[in-house]
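hey m, so remember when u said the tokens were messed up on ur end? i reran from scratch. heres the input so u can diff it against urs
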Amino acid sequence: MLKEKQARELLDKYFEGETSCAEEQQLRSFFTQARLPEDLVDYRPIFGYLDEESRKTAPRKSSKAVRIRFVYYAVSGVAASILILLGIFTFNRHTGQEMNSAYINGEKYTDIQIVHQQARAALAEVSFSQEDIADEMLPDEIK
């Protein structure tokens, strides 16, 4: 770690543009200390910024780790898609058989023609003629 006197000398050298990368690294580590002399505190943001920028440009994770993560996510996505498709297929397979049937008065009918006939008969029982509808709409005083 740099001492205060060495840091001041390096700081002068830095502003003259004569420092090496290693010396600039020493300055960055010096200015990350918790306690700094009051006259040097104003320089902290300069070296804090440089330190932050060097971290941003630092090499990322190895390409092998990135490849492994990509393969993991790709395999997980494919597996999830297969499970969803299997679920849809299974649901359609089991419910598809029941969708072509109807229960009328407790009996199961699978013939669509019989279901239509039964539905027409039920509607005929509950349907009203136009005269019945008109009578219901008129007030009691007019009837």
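this time it looks ok to me. Helices lie at 4-15, 21-30, 44-56, 63-98, 112-126, 130-137. if urs says something different then somethings off w ur setup not the seq
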